[in-house]
Design a protein that fits this description.
heterodimer, A: mainly alpha, 7 helices, 83% helix, 0% strand, B: alpha/beta, 5 helices, 5 strands
Chain lengths: 269, 128
């Protein structure tokens, strides 16, 4: 509809040009009459022709101005009812804002988890380092035969305690490292969300280009073509991507793994 | 369940492939290969030797659901267990995956325990 209205506007433009040419011919003819009458000294006629000429120019100007105003009004009306601008402003931009807020909270959560687990892991590493240093110095004294029997018995006890705690500590370390690993999954989720926002920005850009195209039509500037935008709309993905709290369609979207499991088990899984 | 089985991990985000690979290694599965979408996964599957497929859904090129259908339609691959790990959690999509013959469905973000549970369940059914 938008395209159509632009085309009809173009026709109007050429109609005006034609009309003003006709007017100009009549105008030139009367102007010549004016010269003739003036040379002949016919004052009455000169005054009448001058009034007529002024009226002709005024009529053309008002007609053109009127048409221009109407055309502008029509085009903007068409643009408002046709384009995605309303949808973008009313729902898509606030949606994008929610998505980006969610990205911030996810990245923050991931950073917090990572740092907490590292803070948990550091004392365990320190503990292992201290224990091994103590045992190494005792072991050196033993190999140099500087150790008494009682001290050696003590070393055996210390060694056993150390091995037990080191075994537990390294298991704990492994679980902290796994938590750090899992926390990195934010990159996939936020990547998908940001990708959707990029698509929205491209959409806004496309609509702005349309707006510029409309104004350039009025100024008689050659039309810009934008075949890419149409292709983009056609290829628009039907997948929703990660669920952003507050944006998902609650009736259609499951809230997590438990609901997914329930649905699958109802399907015989 | 054979811990030496060869597992193909398909996801367009390398972070997620590494996470899944590390989690699988933690569960004792060290024989893994990776692909970044369905199109690169197809030739790897065609070469044979893959025992288990773990795939994302939303990927450029060929999507996970189409990869699943491709596997089910190929007589050499049709029996292969397929686990989907994806952020898509619309009811109709889960039903679509179930109808296409998925063996397990995990929504992101997930935990190590969920991955273990789903893999155990898939192979309990197959071995049992």
């Amino acid at each position: 509809m938008l395209e159509k209205s632009c085309q009809s506007n173009n026709i109007n433009l050429s109609e005006w040009k034609y009309m003003s040419e006709v007017v100009d011919e009549a105008f030139i003819k009367r102007a010549k009459d004016l010269v003739v009458s003036a040379e002949a000294g016919k004052d009455e006629e000169v005054r009448a022709i001058l009034d007529e000429l002024a009226a002709m120019k005024e009529t053309t100007l008002f007609t053109e101005l009127g048409k221009l105003t109407r055309e502008l009004h029509e085009t903007f009306k068409a643009f408002r009812s046709d384009s995605r601008i309303n949808e973008l402003a009313e729902s898509d931009i606030p949606d994008a804002r929610e998505r980006l807020h969610y990205v911030i909270s996810m990245t923050q959560q991931a950073a917090d988890t990572t740092m907490t687990q590292i803070e948990n892991a550091i004392p365990l590493c320190e503990h292992i380092t201290e224990g091994t240093e103590e045992l190494l110095s005792s072991w050196d004294r033993f190999t140099r035969k500087e150790m008494q029997v009682e001290e050696f018995r003590q070393l055996i006890k210390t060694l056993k305690v150390f091995l037990q705690t080191a075994n537990k500590d390294s298991k704990d370390l492994m679980s902290y490292l796994n938590e750090v690993l899992m926390a990195q999954s934010y990159q996939d989720i936020t990547g998908q969300i940001i990708y959707k926002v990029i698509q929205l920005v491209e959409d806004v850009e496309g609509n702005l280009v349309n707006l510029i195209k409309l104004s350039s039509d009025h100024l008689g500037i050659e039309k810009l073509s934008d075949p890419e935008q149409k292709d983009k709309d056609k290829n628009k993905s039907i997948l929703d991507g990660p669920v952003v709290p507050g944006l998902a369609d609650k009736a259609e979207t499951l809230s997590g793994q438990d609901e997914v499991d329930d649905l699958l088990s109802s399907l015989g899984f | 369940m054979n811990k030496d089985m060869k597992i193909l991990i398909v996801d367009d985000f390398s972070t997620m492939r590494r996470i899944i690979k590390n989690l699988l290694r933690d569960l004792g599965f060290t024989n893994t290969v990776e692909a970044d979408d369905g199109l690169t996964a197809v030739p790897i599957l065609a070469n044979g030797g893959i025992d288990f497929l773990v795939t994302d859904w939303n990927m450029p090129g060929m999507q996970g659901i189409d990869l699943l259908r491709h596997v089910r339609a190929d007589e050499n691959l049709s029996k292969m267990p397929v686990l989907m790990v994806t952020a898509e959690q619309k009811r109709e999509q889960i039903i679509e995956a179930a109808q296409a013959g998925v063996n397990g469905y995990i929504v992101k973000p997930f935990t190590a325990a969920t991955l273990k549970e789903k893999i155990d369940k898939i192979f309990e059914r197959i071995d049992g």
